[in-house]
UniProtKB/TrEMBL annotation:
Function: Catalyzes the removal of elemental sulfur and selenium atoms from L-cysteine, L-cystine, L-selenocysteine, and L-selenocystine to produce L-alanine.
GO molecular function: cysteine desulfurase activity; pyridoxal phosphate binding
One GO term of the biological process aspect: cysteine metabolic process
Reaction catalyzed: (sulfur carrier)-H + L-cysteine = (sulfur carrier)-SH + L-alanine
Organism listed in the record: Marilutibacter aestuarii
Record's protein name: Cysteine desulfurase
């Protein structure tokens, strides 16, 4: 692969040219949502200007174009993830995707005595739906814990996988620690025991080459807005046999073959799970995002982000009183930290005045915060469009505000 011109790539992202409080924007909050390249903004704009119509309902030219664009995005995403297009349910994001599995797969299946296994590092989106299922079925939840470095304790996890366990739901990459879980090995162990697996790929799909078929899970959830795509886009991949067995979650138009008051014949999967008018323009944008990421190459993106992470980790380790949470064996470009004597929110607020966007808080991961015994951390999350100069400016800004807060 030819070397990527990262300075040119950065110029593809209009928002990064902005100033904030009179300072150049340093956007280190990509784990929260990613910025969008012009190609994505223009594809969405072009859809509304030239093609806008609803999908699957009209025979007219615009209707056909809209349907082709929407289904085209499904095809691009399927290829990107290495799965079959007819196993990909398009939806609003990971939260919807996990809830779809909770309501359509787990709720009709689980009984009192059944167990769902989660991990300590899950996002609330991969905890709360299971609590709702547990509350309604009488199933219970078990939690796999972390070791001191912020890696999953795999032996401990496997010990939890007893015959009562029906589902293991875990994140591929932690949105707080950056921990990359060995999901292939874990799913293999679960499968050997007859346990279904759901992988939350929110923080993996934007940052590394992905091959869902090779992971060997039953369900994989992604969210488009972290992958350079528009908000309100995402997908659930599930094995065809699951999709066929699962009843629909929402009823309405688009998801039926025939409706009579005596009863309705549902459409085939994945359309059975896509009731109502979808986010057509959003998926057109996501299709453009997939083209964009594919052209850059996910291996290049991963290498770039690893270089930025190494630089940031090294530079931050020189800041007095700064503690980085977690040092997992394999780590994505997410750095959670605290500075002695400074509240996370105060630090983030002062950094904002320097033009720097980081997140402070619990990162939708209360149980992980409880594990570390803190209420909040600061989190800097990097993406390929960030620069080494930004990392240096960030560390200098932390040094500056640390003195203000001390
Ligand atoms: N899981 C993880 C690991 C996440 O980081 C996020 C987003 N912060 C979600 C789930 C939820 O994604 P969304 O809000 O796009 O549905």
């Amino acid at each position: 692969t030819p070397a990527v011109d990262w300075a040119a790539v950065r110029r593809d992202f209009p928002v990064l040219e902005r100033e904030v409080h009179g300072k150049p924007l340093v956007y280190f909050d990509s784990a929260n949502t990613g910025q969008k390249p012009s190609a994505v903004i223009e594809a969405t704009d072009d859809f509304y200007r030239r093609h806008n119509a609803n999908v699957s309902r009209a025979v007219h030219a615009l209707g056909t174009e809209a349907t082709e664009a929407y289904e085209g995005a499904r095809g691009k995403l399927a290829k990107f993830l290495n799965v079959r297009a007819d196993e990909l349910v398009l939806c609003s994001g990971t939260t919807f995707a996990i809830n779809l599995v909770a309501y359509s797969w787990a709720l009709p299946r689980l009984k009192p005595g059944d167990v769902i296994v989660l991990t300590r590092m899950e996002h609330h989106a991969n905890i709360v739906p299971w609590q709702l299922v547990a509350g309604r079925t009488g199933a219970t939840i078990r939690v796999a814990e972390l070791d001191a470095r912020g890696d999953l304790d795999l032996d401990g996890l496997y010990r939890l996988l007893t015959p009562e366990v029906k589902l293991l739901a875990l994140t591929h990459v932690s949105n707080v620690l950056g921990t990359v879980n060995p999901v292939r090995e874990i799913c293999r162990e679960a499968r050997r025991r007859g346990i279904a697996t759901l992988v939350d790929g929110s923080q993996a799909a934007p940052h590394r080459p992905l091959d869902i078929a090779a992971i060997g899970c039953d369900f994989y959830a992604i969210t488009g807005h972290k992958m350079s795509g528009p908000t309100g886009t995402g997908a659930l991949w599930a094995r065809r046999e699951h999709l066929e067995a699962m009843p629909p979650f929402l009823g309405g138009g688009e998801m039926i073959k025939e409706v009579r008051f005596e009863g309705t014949v549902f459409n085939d999967a994945p359309h059975k799970f896509e009731a109502g008018t979808p986010n057509i323009a959003g998926f057109v944008g996501l299709g453009a995002a997939i083209d964009y990421l594919s052209a850059l190459g996910m291996a290049n993106i991963e290498a770039r982000e690893q270089a930025l992470l190494a630089h940031a980790t090294e530079a931050l380790s020189g800041v007095e009183g700064l503690r980085i949470f977690g040092a997992p064996a394999e780590k994505a470009a997410v750095i959670s930290f605290l500075v002695e004597g400074a509240h996370a929110h105060d630090l983030a607020t002062l950094l904002d005045l320097e033009g720097m966007a980081i997140r402070s808080g619990h990162h939708c991961a209360h149980p992980l915060m409880q594990h570390f015994g803190v209420a909040a951390t600061c989190r800097a999350s990097l993406a390929f469009y960030n620069t080494h100069d930004e990392v240096d400016a960030f560390v200098a800004a932390i040094e500056k505000v640390r003195k203000l807060l001390a």
